[in-house]
Design goal:
The structure is a single chain. By secondary structure, the protein is an alpha+beta fold. The strands form three sheets. Strands 7, 8, 9, 10, 11, 12, 13 and 14 form an eight-stranded antiparallel beta sheet that branches. Strands 2-1-3-5-4 form a five-stranded mixed beta sheet. Strand 4 and strand 5 form a beta hairpin. Helix 3 packs parallel to helix 5.
Length: 329
Amino acid sequence: MGFTSVMNKTLFLCLFSTSFLISCAFKKDNSQEKSSAAINTIAVIIDDQLWNGEVGDSVRNKFASPVLGLPQEEPLFNINQYPVKLFEGFSTDTRNIIIVKKDNETKFEIKQNEFTSPQNSFHISGKNSIEIIEILEKNAPIIIQKMRAIEITHNQKIFKDSLLNSQKIKKKFNIDLLIPSKYEYVMRKKNFIWIKSEIIGGNTSLIIYQIPWKSIRPNYAVPDVLKVRDSIGKLYIHGSVAGTKMITEEAYSPYFSVTKLAGNTTFETKGTWQMKNDFMSGPFINYVIFDNANRRLLILEGFCYAPSKEKRDLMFELESIIKSIQIKK
């Protein structure tokens, strides 16, 4: 066999291997398999020319912007970009896909379970970059809302595979929660429960407690929420050194919004905690639920201590647990 023949065969094998590896990133759309993609990851199907220009900048600014309430910058979503031609005829198991291309038709369309299940597909097209960016800017809030919702639901389905026995929580607060079995009860008081999951180099925690109906005034929500959480830290959450207690870190202003949980108006507060007289700190997410039926304020807060780790997905897990709440009648 001549040298040229060997080289041609080698080149063919290299090209074949490359094509095989690329095609494995997608699946033929013969059957809708269950999505197994990493949490908080999205696929953006867009040609390199658009991706490397103003359109790509707009996508990154909207969907890889820093998560609010974390001490270090971490992106809202991890983005995997693929050219349109590579994607045509194939599907991906990513739960969230944004398909962007230039076209004679200006369009924004949302499709459910187009290539796999569960999945959101967001189709965006315009005659030029300006039109595409306008569509992105206008619809980014609803896209992010739907993306986060499907990721939370995915997390909750994972929890169901192995759940903590939450009868103690149900009996004390008359609520149901989906809590992974890796969490353990570390403290139970009259109106307070603390559960914790140990991880390498730290831990994640969820606390649940209830306070009188008028303890937090809507017109003074942020100072009242922080006052309550600092009082709980003083009572129950201490470090290993005497005289330490959890407080809200004053160096960072918390992020506040109003939402709904279990059909009730809820105050959401994100910020950073620290252990007074110690060096521990981390992010927290606090929900104050105005439980009208029981005339009480039910508070669920997640926080983590993981100094050497990224914290986005740790906090997202806690948020997913909290948002699984059902208040029993």
